[in-house]
Design brief:
The protein is built from four helices and no strands. It is mainly α. It has one domain.
Length: 77
């Protein structure tokens, strides 16, 4: 799955569906020898945040933190 495919599929998910979808997608990518850097993951999330409520934004920010904790070796900041 390419980053654009991931973004397009993620864009059709509700905020409650987003985390399970992204975790499954990232897991599938890793099994295929691919991965997302934190910058790539953040870029997708920044685009997906457009037009979301404050509650949804807070939930999405928590997802980003979870991704960072799950992928400590991929820090790009």
């Amino acid at each position: 799955m390419s980053i654009m495919q991931l973004y397009n599929q993620a864009g059709s998910k509700s905020s409650s569906e987003l985390l399970p979808f992204l975790l499954a997608s990232v897991g599938n990518m890793q099994r295929s020898g691919m991965s997302l850097s934190q910058d790539e993951f953040r870029l997708i999330f920044d685009a997906l945040k457009q037009g979301k409520s404050q509650e949804e934004l807070a939930r999405m920010n928590q997802m980003i933190q979870m991704f960072r904790m799950m992928n400590p070796g991929k820090k790009t900041d």
